[in-house]
């Protein structure tokens, strides 16, 4: 048995968990590298240290937060890291109503904005892949209500989007799956 070197053991879980989620050109000259950030890993560093580490020691410049934990939502305040907040799937049906969307914004965005550079709200997580008709049917209305709620709070610099897995491109397999309409109208 080889003994594992134990220098910097605590950074390891973070780096493993910070899996790459996107590479996109945010302008002609800058390249953004993003990671998903959550608390499903053990032995996480204190959040402020993670934020500091990400900002100063990596080339990562945007973070997607899958978690509604306010401590995580605050961790990247006053850094130059762009952050994506996520509406958890179970909240999606409720926010189709404008008052509910407004209170979601009031509770989840306004306390953190603009100290945290929130550039995007991701509505749900891979909702089409859940094959849950309630979630799928409410997705677009929820996105529209959220946009209206942001507008009425005068927040104009946050975009609303929804992430999907590549799995949604493979709906024709197996052939029997085509017997059932995937989008009843
Ligand atoms: C953010 O970036 C700007 C411009 O590059 C820089 O002046 C500022 O000090 C940075 N802020 C932090 C908190 O690093
Ligand atoms: C679909 O999602 C909603 C909201 O999370 C949940 O209440 C419901 O039980 C789910 N339906 C199924 C069939 O899983
Ligand atoms: C949004 O901006 C308008 C025009 O500047 C202002 O009348 C309104 O009170 C603002 N609303 C909020 C919620 O800040």
TrEMBL record:
Cited SUPFAM superfamilies: (Trans)glycosidases
Q: Which UniProt keywords apply?
A: Glycosidase, Hydrolase, Signal
Q: Where is the composition biased (Polar residues)?
A: 174-185
| Residues annotated as signal peptide | 1-28
Looking up InterPro entries in the UniProt record yields: GH (IPR017853), Glyco_hydro_17 (IPR000490), Glyco_hydro_17_plant (IPR044965)
Q: Which reaction does it catalyse?
A: Hydrolysis of (1->3)-beta-D-glucosidic linkages in (1->3)-beta-D-glucans
- Where are the annotated segments for Disordered? 166-185
One Pfam match, given by its short name, reads Glyco_hydro_17
Q: Name one GO biological process term.
A: carbohydrate metabolic process
Its Gene Ontology molecular function terms? Answer: glucan endo-1,3-beta-D-glucosidase activity
Tell me which EC number(s) this protein carries: 3.2.1.39
The UniProt family comment states: Belongs to the glycosyl hydrolase 17 family.
Protein name as annotated? glucan endo-1,3-beta-D-glucosidase
Organism this protein belongs to: Quercus lobata (Valley oak)
């Amino acid at each position: 048995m080889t003994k594992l070197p134990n220098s910097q053991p605590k950074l390891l879980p973070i780096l493993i968990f910070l899996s790459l989620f996107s590479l996109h050109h945010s302008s002609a000259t800058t390249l953004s590298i993003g990671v998903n950030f959550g608390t499903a890993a053990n032995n996480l560093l204190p959040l402020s240290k993670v934020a500091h580490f990400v900002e100063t020691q990596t080339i990562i410049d945007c973070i997607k937060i899958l978690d509604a934990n306010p401590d995580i939502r605050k961790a990247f305040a006053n850094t130059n890291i762009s952050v994506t907040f996520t509406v958890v799937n179970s909240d999606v049906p409720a926010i189709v109503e404008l008052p509910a969307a407004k209170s979601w914004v009031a509770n989840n965005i306004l306390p953190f904005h603009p100290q945290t550079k929130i550039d995007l709200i991701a509505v749900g997580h891979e909702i089409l892949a859940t094959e849950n008709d309630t979630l799928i049917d409410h997705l677009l209305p929820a996105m529209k209500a959220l946009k209206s709620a942001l507008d009425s709070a005068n927040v104009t610099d946050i975009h609303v989007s929804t992430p999907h897995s590549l799995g949604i491109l493979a709906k024709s397999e197996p052939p029997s799956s085509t017997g059932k309409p995937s989008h009843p109208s």
